[in-house]
Amino acid sequence: MSTHADRLAALRDELARRRLDGFVVPLTDEHMSEYVGAYAQRLAWLTGFQGSAGSAVVLPAEAAIFTDGRYTLQVREQVDGANWSYQSVPQTSAAQWLAEHAPQGARIGYDPWLHTKSWVQQATAALKAKGAMLVAVETNPVDAVWHDRPLPSDARLVVQPTELAGRSSAEKRAEIADWLTAKGADAAVLSALDSIAWTFNVRGADVDRTPVALAYALVGADGTADLFVAPDKLTDDVRQHLGNAVRLHPRDAFADHLGGLAGKTIVVDPDRAVAAIFGTLEGAGARVLPLRDPAILPKAIKNAAEQAGHRAAQARDGAALSRFLHWLSIEAPKGGVTELSAQDRLLAFREETGRLRDLSFDTISGAGPNGAVVHYRVSEESNRPLELNSLYLVDSGGQYQDGTTDVTRTVAIGTPSPEMRDRFTRVLKGHIALASAVFPAGTRGGQLDTLARRYLWAAGLDYAHGTGHGVGAFLAVHEGPQRIAPVGGAFVGGDEPLQAGMILSNEPGYYKTGEYGIRIENLVLVEPRDVPGAEKALLGFETLTFAPIDRTLIDLALVTPAERAWVDGYHARVAEVVGPQLEDEAAAWLKSATAPL
């Protein structure tokens, strides 16, 4: 099965053998992860799609792949339209499409370990009108035809030191225990991998770009816990760190353990736990409370140690990025620099810090028209040179033990056009408006999102992604529940009240299909803001990311004195934080790159 068409045909044969008329293939794992291990890359194996969000439906005579606005171009480049129809979310969904396309009376299979309970309910309701039914499979049919499917990672867990975590695992479990007691619950299921890593102060290497380990956990109202993880992943150091209050079990014992909780009241997160967990508990006679994972909010609100670690990581990463931008300023105009070579050089600068554990996501290295592909991933086939009088967009980040970084810079190679400068300046004005915002405590990200879009909207322009996502502390680069995004539609999640200690990205952009892309991204920390005479508690943002913004792309006729002052102030801070870390030539370049406008 060397081609994706062969794989699709093999899956259809397997479905027919199982008397199924269709199957739904999501891009996730048993933990509802955004980024998944190689063993769980079923959607990519079947279709060729390399994005980080999507799903597919296979029927006997047709198949569809579902992606949102971030992947409109990418999905068409990577997935063969002769075999798959392209469907846009939120205009439609897998459930809605099935209701229209599934044969009358069809049996549509799904893996209950890869979908939420709410999705199952929605799909069941959608299919009912067709007299069709959703059928839970005991084993995934994609796995049955994926003969060289990788095994799950066997990487060992490592301890995240308390001095970096800021609080011990025992303290975190005690806080969860108090919350469970207040809810009248006996225990909470933790199935999100970053929640488990945070709660137990451990990290892993089972998922590329995210330092987590494949595991499940139950945290009890008495502060003890059950951790389900492959025994050979546990070192003596980790066992000692976890202590006697954490009972250890093999990961594959999790479902059987749930089956023994009859009569218990168990909290399960309906957005982060799969349907199989609910079904197993309910089938065993447990009472299930569908509440948010109790680690989610405290994980999002960074304590003083995590904030300090982030600042150190951002300063280190900013120096690596500045060295790269200096290198790019010399080499790119000569010709010969490509997306791949630039990406590799940036990685090398990060590795030279001696502290890089991994990238925080696959670097987006987009030259010219490839920069307009929001989540572009360069390959040997797509690799473009950085050409004169074009734009280059690089979105990248690192995983360091003290923090996770994510930063985007757009650079003019040669002389930018007036239109490029206009669009860049409008994106910058939106970035500044959000970075400078002062807002009442309790404000939601969705209320702030329009600040970043205002100047694009004034010119009839926009961008098809959220403006900001949460970021973890040596954890997931995309972390909830905080977001700065429109409420509703494809970017649901902008309705979480922002709280001091949350870290988010600030990344408005503009993308002209077939020509160029622009994005300016810094990470920001929500912090209390004192305003004389204020009659309510206020919040604002501390900018954490430090790397120069390309001054040649700023149209000074479009910026106000206050915006000019913001850029000058930001660049002065970049020079202060990054300058002492750079060598002679790079330091001189930085001084010029951060000079007042």
Automatic annotation (TrEMBL):
Q: Where is the Peptidase M24 domain?
A: 310-527
Domain (Creatinase N-terminal): residue spans on this chain: 7-130
Q: Which terms are listed as keywords in the entry?
A: Aminopeptidase, Hydrolase, Metal-binding, Protease
Tell me its EC number(s), please.
3.4.11.-
A Pfam family it matches: Creatinase_N_2
> Locate the Peptidase M24 C-terminal domain: which residues?
539-597
Family matches, as SUPFAM superfamilies = Creatinase/aminopeptidase, Creatinase/prolidase N-terminal domain
Task: State the CDD domains in the record.
Answer: APP (cd01085)
Does Magnesium show up as a keyword for this record? no
Q: Which GO terms describe its molecular function?
A: aminopeptidase activity
Give the family, as the similarity comment puts it.
Belongs to the peptidase M24B family.
PANTHER family noted in UniProt = XAA-PRO AMINOPEPTIDASE 1
Q: What is the protein name given in its UniProt record?
A: Aminopeptidase P family protein
